[in-house]
Design brief:
CATH architecture of the largest domain: 2-Layer Sandwich
Order of helices and strands: HEEHEEEEEHEHEEEEEHHEEEHE
Number of domains: 3
Shape: globular
Largest sheet: 6 strands, antiparallel
Oligomer: single chain
Distance between the termini: 15 Å
Number of strands: 17
């Protein structure tokens, strides 16, 4: 589908080093699993994203958007068309008191509490861990919960990522995105329709470009560092971060803890091929070595069936499965 004419059109605008044909998606997912992307492109700015979207629209080429690949499972037959990795990494920190006519902020802040508020404008491709360290240095709090999530801003907003009782819906002020028709629009927090591990971006073909976060500045960053260290210690102790995975594999239930049910089914350590239910945390399916997507999906079905049989509870995937 990516014929020489399409390729030549792409390199007329985008640097060749940012375009790779038949690229293994194992290199671009935290699961280290997946077949080849027919055409893999990293876009460093909004103009590149618009250009690629226009080519896909005009030539009916499938377009798949990814961030850091930390919440996806790519199937073994790969992905047709173009896989676009959003690499937009601009960042700006502005004190609220220095901003005029900030859209949507009146819905998120009372004037009496504005003194220590800051707005962080951040590109969709910015890594959460990197941002957390910058905010720490600037004594800005409210982002500690996301410091250990191995994703990008765009992916985190799209899935309303969360940890330790906080979610992105709590700090997102506004998101700039690109519609399927190439129109740039801005959505308020409310318009993004945040819910548990989802947002409007899972229902619409909107490409996230940039997000504004509403956070707080404090005098001393010691409290921030202590919180980040505490959460890091908890992750090391409780999560199998030493193995490739896509994070928490299943969503929590409305009235149950999914990992607890999986554990009570005796599935810790259960494996299919190179895929295994973590012995440290039953909510994680890990890649113990050369696992295929088929291994993971077969194991997922076994887990679902065992939980349904024992507890009459249907569990849902939190990770997204993409590809052929």
């Amino acid at each position: 589908m990516i014929n020489p004419d399409i390729y030549n059109l792409l390199i007329s605008k985008i640097d060749k080093e940012n375009i790779i044909l038949n690229e293994s998606m194992k290199k671009h997912t935290s699961f280290k699993i997946g077949g080849e992307a027919e055409c893999f492109i990293k876009a460093k700015n909004i103009e590149d994203v618009k250009f690629i979207l226009n080519i896909c629209n005009e030539n009916k080429i499938p377009l798949t958007i990814i961030g850091n690949g930390s919440n996806i499972l790519v199937k073994d037959n790969g992905i047709k068309g173009i896989v676009l990795k959003i690499g937009i990494d601009n960042m700006e920190i502005t004190d609220y008191k220095n901003i005029e006519n900030t859209v949507n902020i009146e819905d998120n802040i009372e004037e009496s509490n504005a003194e220590n508020k800051v707005i962080v404008t951040i590109g969709a491709g910015f890594l959460l861990a990197k941002l957390a360290q910058i905010l720490l240095k600037n004594s800005i709090t409210g982002f500690e919960f996301a410091s250990g999530i191995p994703g990008t801003i765009g992916g985190a907003v799209r899935m309303n990522a969360g940890a330790y009782g906080s979610e992105f819906k709590d700090i997102v002020l506004e998101t700039t995105c690109l519609t399927k028709n190439g129109e740039i629009i801005k959505l308020s927090n409310k318009e993004q329709q945040f819910d548990y591990r989802r947002s409007i971006f899972k229902d619409k073909d909107y490409i996230i470009l940039e997000t504004k976060l509403l956070l707080n500045r404090i005098e001393n960053n010691t409290i921030i560092k202590e919180k980040m260290d505490e959460l890091k210690k908890s992750r090391i102790e409780k999560q199998p971060i030493e193995y490739p995975s896509a994070g928490s594999t299943f969503k929590r239930g409305n009235d149950f803890i999914t990992a607890k049910l999986i554990d009570e089914c005796g599935l810790k350590g259960y494996s299919v091929g190179g895929a295994e239910v973590s012995t440290k945390h039953a909510g994680f399916v890990i890649n113990k070595g050369n696992a295929t997507a088929e291994d993971v999906l077969e194991l997922v079905e076994i887990i679902k069936n065992k939980v349904l049989e024992k507890f009459e509870k249907e569990i849902e995937l939190e990770i997204e499965v993409i590809g052929e």
